[in-house]
Design goal:
The complex is a heterodimer of chains A (237) and B (271). Chain A is mainly alpha-helical and 237 residues long. Chain A has one domain: Up-down Bundle (Methane Monooxygenase Hydroxylase, Chain G, domain 1). In chain A, 80% of the residues lie in helices and 0% in strands. The longest helix of chain A has 34 residues. In chain B, strand 4 and strand 5 form a beta hairpin. In chain B, helix 5 packs across helix 7.
Chain lengths: 237, 271
């Protein structure tokens, strides 16, 4: 934000909201990383920590919402300020969902414990999560810089995650067909993969919101998608 | 009144606005107060059946421009207006224009309610009488009632039409002034900060009235309250240092204005 308001308290309120969003982003990112690490290493203590961290994240979102509404009522924001606050509300909601997806993944760690996650599948999930977390981390950096061009670039990149998810989906199906005893674990892993893929979608949403906050224009058109798992039928010999 | 029909009316009005017949056209309008230049080549058109808000910091020239539209600046000594302003097709600064008639076509409501120190009835009937709009008492009664109805004041004052207009509350006085402006069937109504002396309730009533008047009149309003401009207008023009900075749809103006100076002003920032 280049210039400052005549009322300095207004600036403080906007800065506070922006700082809280960055903090939420950091926590959500950490939770998702921990959840996947817990899954790969069968670390139920770490999984438990992710589950309890979600309470903090939910609380942060509610607090941001309350503060944003008070600011709207008190300052009657206009133009870029109005977009900034509306963007804050939207990004807060996206980050809260990201936390939920991390928590859901963490819960499944406990469910698949004992059965052991096949090394190859674990690597696939790790790779998917690396992509999604890079996406999330970068979008949070873009939030700090408010760069419309970078936001647009991130939105396009979600395609990679979708493609990776589809290939993981195929792989899990194959495992299940090989041995029905894999079905429980593979189904949980499938949900985990879906959770991670959704994190990428939220990162994309955030990128779109940042673009709107900065330019006042909505990014038009469908973003490129490469998630074709919804059209995959049963694989027959 | 059901919601559907009201929405339909709004839509029809918006359509009418977009078809944009300009009620008044200002071309290269400049104003000088003696040596001092107050307006610099302003090109601003006023659309029919539209509320146009003029905003900008104090001394930016918005009231000066408003006063050009019915030649109120004529009354100020040393004031000189150049450029061209037309109402429909008539050049309002043409020598052959009757200024009294012009001000009947382009009425004005001021910042401070200024009813005549006469009865409510006489406040309204004065204009129609000097313009010869009523043939007899029945005609006049009708005009008075219709004007007060339009201004949303009728039910509040119908039993005391012959009491003094100055005995009304500030908000009622302002609506009386609007009724007075409406009584001579103007085409355009100019309002110079009509709510700045009113409390929020009275302000809301006047704003509601502006909203209704739009169906029959073209309205230009000067306001210091950005929220008011956002609430009542369809078009907004931003003035700064005697220049027209930006004119745009109000919705666009308050969410994503084109000009940095507009942005800074409406967001309350240092430029």
């Amino acid at each position: 934000m280049a210039s400052t308001h005549i009322l300095s308290a207004y600036d403080d309120e906007l800065k506070y909201l922006s700082r809280r969003i960055s903090e939420m982003g950091g926590l959500a990112e950490q939770m998702c990383g921990d959840a996947v690490r817990a899954l790969v290493n069968s670390d139920s203590a770490l999984a438990q920590k992710v589950i309890s961290d979600d309470v903090i994240l939910d609380h942060a979102e509610r607090e941001i919402q309350d503060k944003a509404i008070v600011t709207i009522a008190r300052r009657q924001p206009m133009a870029a300020d109005l977009r900034e606050i509306v963007g804050t509300l939207r990004i807060g909601a996206d980050l809260e969902r990201v936390g939920d997806l991390g928590k859901n993944t963490a819960k499944r760690v406990i469910a698949v414990q004992g059965t052991g996650v096949p090394r190859k599948l674990a690597r696939g999930i790790e790779h998917l999560s690396d992509l999604a977390l890079v996406q999330l981390k970068e979008v949070l950096d873009v939030y700090a810089s408010r760069s419309a061009e970078k936001a647009e670039a991130i939105r396009i990149r979600d395609e990679e995650i979708d493609a990776m998810y589809t290939s993981l989906f195929r792989e899990l199906l194959t495992y299940m067909m090989e041995d029905p005893r894999n079905i429980t674990t593979c189904t949980h892993l499938l949900f985990c993969a879906k959770n991670i893929e959704r994190i990428g979608d939220h990162a994309t949403n955030i990128a779109e919101t940042i673009y709107y906050m900065t330019t006042g224009a909505q990014l038009e058109g469908e973003r490129p998608k490469d998630d074709t798992s919804n059209t995959l039928g049963a694989i027959t010999e | 009144m059901n919601m559907m029909s009201e929405a339909a009316v709004e839509k029809a009005l918006d359509q009418k606005m977009n078809d944009a017949s300009y009620k008044m056209i200002g071309k290269d309008v400049s104003v000088y107060y003696g040596e001092k230049r107050a307006l610099f080549d302003v090109n601003l058109n006023v659309r029919e059946n539209t509320v146009t808000a003029l905003i900008g910091p104090s001394g930016c020239g918005k009231s000066t421009f408003l006063r050009c539209l019915n030649r109120m600046n004529d009354t100020i000594e040393n004031c000189r207006v150049t450029g061209r302003i037309t109402l429909d097709t008539d050049d309002i600064y043409d020598q052959n224009i009757d200024v009294v008639e012009l001000r009947a076509r382009v009425g004005m409501v001021f910042q401070k309610p200024n009813p005549f120190p006469k009865s409510i009835y006489e406040n309204i009937s004065y204009g129609p009488r000097i313009h010869g709009l009523a043939r007899n008492k029945t005609d006049m009664d009708q005009i008075v009632e219709a004007s007060l109805q339009r201004a949303g004041l009728w039910t509040e004052v119908k039993d005391r039409l012959h009491e003094s207009g100055t005995g009304l509350s500030g908000g009622q006085q302002q609506r009386l002034c609007i009724a007075r402006a409406v009584a001579v069937s103007p085409e355009v109504i100019l309002m110079d900060e009509p709510c700045s002396a009113l409390d929020p309730i009275a302000t809301a009533k006047v704003e509601e009235l502006i909203h209704e008047l739009r169906a029959n009149y073209t309205i230009v309003i000067v306001t210091h309250s950005m929220q008011q401009a956002a609430r009542v207008s369809q078009r907004t023009a931003m003035f700064h240092l005697g220049q027209l900075v930006e004119e745009n749809d109000t919705d666009k103006m308050f969410t994503n204005p084109d000009d940095q100076r507009t942005q800074d002003y409406i967001m309350g920032r240092f430029g």
